[in-house]
User: Fold Carbohydrate ABC transporter permease from Amnibacterium setariae.
Amino acid sequence: MAVEALPSNALRRPRRSRPTGHSAASNGVVYVVAAVVIVLMLAPVAYIVIGGFRTNSQITDSPAGFPAPWVAKNYVDVLTGGLFWRLVGNSLIVGLLTTLGVVVLGLMASFAIARYEYRLRGAMYALFAAGLMFPVTVAITPLYIVVKNLGLTNTLAGVILPQIAFGLPTTIIILVPFLRAIPVEIQEAAEIDGASRLGFFWRMVVPLSLPGVVTVGILAFIGSWNGYLLPLFILNNPSTFTLPLGVQQFSSQYSVDTARVLAFTSLSMLPALIFFSIFQRRIVGGLTGAVKG
Assistant:
């Protein structure tokens, strides 16, 4: 049987279309705009960090200049003082307990919404979704009255409990798709093997939804760490201040020492920046999984 030879042009690889001048110009404009936006976002942060290495006289003589010479005394004074570390400790306690409460309660509520059929399941999910549109600024006055009646003002618990409540809507919205994506066959096999509902929850659901759990935990911790309005209303005792409140107090107390205030502010930003830089891939991966689910 004769085989016809293919024409020579059929064996050639298709040529890739080269970008036209219009598309190249468009890409250039996008890169320029992105670079301008990045510079505008990073410029204030860079000014604060560099300003901490200057003296007050240098800032007065040249507000936008560079340190000449570089002085590390401001950062050393802040790090060797007890105020900064006390504020970091308070923020760490509030952030960790808030994250624990948000993850545990959010995971259990998401499990009930995602895996079981009952009459008010849709209404419950809609209620948590509506919580995303209910900012803390709207509820701050009645919330303060409730916390005061419970005797939790000037305590870290008075900040932790409301933060857990306001963190649950986001947590449930993210975790429900993860739990719904778990195949029903896995749950049926676990029940055949004698696993209870709690056993299936701890042994199967928690490990399978770990990417989403890590994501909501990181978001809850960062939100708690950067929280300012709620601690401002609840905490009046400087010994219980969190880091954002401490920055404001320090700025008012040392308002004439601009360089020291800049050093304190830059050190206060550093933990959140490091934490987010380490776990940013986890956040993106978890949110992507929630969208796919």
